Amino acid sequence: MRSSLRIARASAPSSFGSLRTTRLSLGGSLYTRTSALASARLYADDASKAKKKIDLTDKSDEEIIELVTAGKLHSHKLEEYLPGNLERAVRIRRLGLEAHVQAKSDHKPDLSKLPYQSYNYDSVYGACCENVVGYVPIPLGMAGPLLVNGKLVHIPMATTEGCLVASTHRGCKAITESGGATSVVIADGMTRGPAVRLPSAKRASEVIAWVKNTDNFYLLASAFNSTSRFARLNSIKTGIAGRTLFLRFKSATGDAMGMNMISKGVEKALDVITDYFPDLEILSLSGNYCTDKKPSAINWLEGRGKSVVAEAIIEERIVKEVLKTTVQSLVDLNIQKNLVGSAVAGSIGGNNAHASNIVSAMFLATGQDPAQNVESSNCMTLMEVAPNGKDLFISCTMPSIEVGTIGGGTHLGPQSTCLDIMGVKGSNLTNPGANARALAEAICAAVMAGELSLMSALAAGHLVRSHMAHNRKKDPQVSEPHKLPDFTNTPSENDSPKEEKFGACVVGDKK
To answer: Where do the segments described as Disordered lie (predicted)?
Structure first.
């Protein structure tokens, strides 16, 4: 039976807000404020004197909540107070959250639809999230398989946008049936751009000259590389504004996305520079010259993370039968939309239809940093008539895909499983960095599949109809299963299918 929590409003400060619990009832048991506060003082005094960790394992939930609301213990340290029982810490924090919201607004939130049980919080605590009150499930779909560099790869996509998986799946089918995609990493290097300040612009220019000296670069690289088995400094790009100097360090980072790794290396390199320039002031380890999680021209021009190009030739027959359009229609639309339209909009890195859709969904599914979708979605989609004069040539150039197969959220169970399905889980022990590069190549190829399908829907005028069919149910409370089509039987030229449905997503001709 779920415990009920009754709590009165008052003005005492606490980790859950300004609450003073006068009476607490959970599951019928009663706990008085006086004894709770006495216990709180006892625990606080003992912890202060002995300087040891507090263990509240033997205390009831209501006692612990009273200690927290009294301001004697910290809500964010519940996992520390309850070693070996992280789920209980989450449950208690939820009860406190309910009490705080109710006391502040006279409204008791219903947390029953926010799950928290049966989750491996050991993988989260101290690594991925703080003040945990549960987790938010996101539907996971699979597109493909997509033939990339001669291998069939399933494409995991976590999304709440109807039609996205189905449309990407159609693009995968068109590419795979036409012989597959080639995807290659042409550059690999994470960046960090600290900001430093010198007494004058002239002095800053002297630092620039010093850094550009080959012998000095090797000196910095030696210090930088000493911080990791995988970090290898590739280059240092400089920028200046007045007497403020920006240094963009670029380094290989193995199978990790590499932000923490490169930050350690940059700190070590800056120590060397300050030895030679003691009047140099370090303003920030990141001066936005990196650039991380923000739109920027430098990532578009210079690259960040993995710079990838994917390409494929789609047979004219496949364009007609699977994509329901023509090669010339796609070529014309791509010029006007992705090239001219993006130019008129003044877009940087946005010469594409919806690369961010696929990148975001795959990032969530594989444990990447979703905020890095900003620069990772930089993409130029090109389409032209193939050299044979009838098929379609398509390519996607993505200069700044920031991914890793270790670190961050990649070790969480579901995300790790998705990486495993793709065949890129963890570190590549024989060829460090190969798994992360393969993931980036698969993402770029999947983006190309998504571009191909959406552009086809736009060219054929099917976009609105497909989304209305897929995203607008008569009764939003009723969940109906969506089925992907059976692609085992490809229609011949003699067949004249009027429409092809992906679940409720219509992508064919309907008259």
So the answer is: 468-511
